[in-house]
Amino acid sequence: MERRPLARVAGIVPAAGRSSRLGANKLLLELGSEALVRRAVRQALDGGLSPVIAVLGFEAERVAAALGGLPVENVINPLPSRGMHGSLATGIGSVPADCEGALVLLPDMPLVTAAMLRQMVDRFRAGAEPLVISRFGDVQAPPTLYARHLFLEVAAAGPGGGRRVVRDHLAEAAVIHWPETLLADLDHAEDLNRIRTLMGQAGPKPQGR
User: Fold this and answer.
1) What is the set of domains in the chain, with CATH numbers?
2) Would you say the pTM of this structure is higher than 0.85?
């Protein structure tokens, strides 16, 4: 199996959504005195991803301010109403030509750590698979690492395209299994206490609306 020991891997953090189900901009919610979006970008940086690209849209100025001081590249999703696909296509299109892969992580999955991201990058560099995917028990979910030759396919796949590309190439993918508890994501107000308990921290407080 061909190896890619020096492969440069970018990080993509989609951060353009309106958080309509939560009723507040969840990217600016704090866990451990750190906004969710900042936590995700910091994990990506600590995980060795370079560059780290944050795709902004809704309340872009406020989200960018929450990332102040971090070496992150902010890009704007021109059509945030297209949802995750628009952010993914924007992020993929911003990856430098010398990157052999891009790892997509979601800021509303705050239990994903830099160590997990490093393990995914190491697995990508150790083989020739076009994908490194995460499985939490029986559930496949981000973070997901795509090799460069899949970028156009991801960008052109339309809504749900990232998942569709994973399904189409599942037989070729490297799979890393994580504990089911790490799947915790933040979509509704009741998720705050659950994630707070898992992290063993004081309650997160919303900033803004």
Assistant:
1) 9-198 (3.90.550.10)
2) yes
